[in-house]
Amino acid sequence: MFGIVPKLQQYVCAWNFWPAFMKKFIMSEKGPFTIFFWTPLAKWGISIANIGDMRKPVEQVNTLQQCVIAWTGLLFTRWCFIITPRVYSLVICNFCMAQTGLYQLYRKHQQGKLFTR
């Protein structure tokens, strides 16, 4: 089971219509056959959903959820500078996720409803 991704990567890279830079990208350690490529894509969904929640009234924003979003964004922003390879798209994604969570918490604080669910 674990050997299928490298085989698929070799198969896709063997197609003759890829330009040289695409073959290099496909075979790279940050390419589309690694977790480092797909994680930012999935995490942007959280940030985009949180931006969409900014239209909601403050009473409907969950404090605990926003604390978790902000904390994981900050924690993993730091972690992205520790892991190898460094994936700057993941750094930006995590930083934006933290900022959206912190902004939602700021909104609740401004309304005096930070400690209500």
The share of residues in helices is 55-70%
Mean pLDDT: 87
Q: Rg, please?
A: 19 Å
Cα separation of the termini? 44 Å
How would you describe the oligomerization state of the chains in this entry? Answer: single chain
Overview of this structure, please?
Pfam families: MPC. It is found in: Mitochondrion inner membrane. Mediates the uptake of pyruvate into mitochondria. This is Mitochondrial pyruvate carrier. By secondary structure, this protein is an all-alpha fold. It contains five helices and no strands. Helix 3 runs parallel beside helix 5 (88-110) and helix 4 (63-80) packs antiparallel against helix 5. The longest helix is centred in the C-terminal third of the chain and has 23 residues, at 88-110. The chain is elongated, with a radius of gyration of 19 Å.
Which helices and strands appear, and what pairs or packs with what?
Blueprint: H1 4-13, H2 20-27, H3 35-52, H4 63-80, H5 88-110
Helix pairs in contact: 3-5, 4-5
Brief sketch in words of this structure:
Its main location: mitochondrion. With 117 residues, the protein is mainly α.
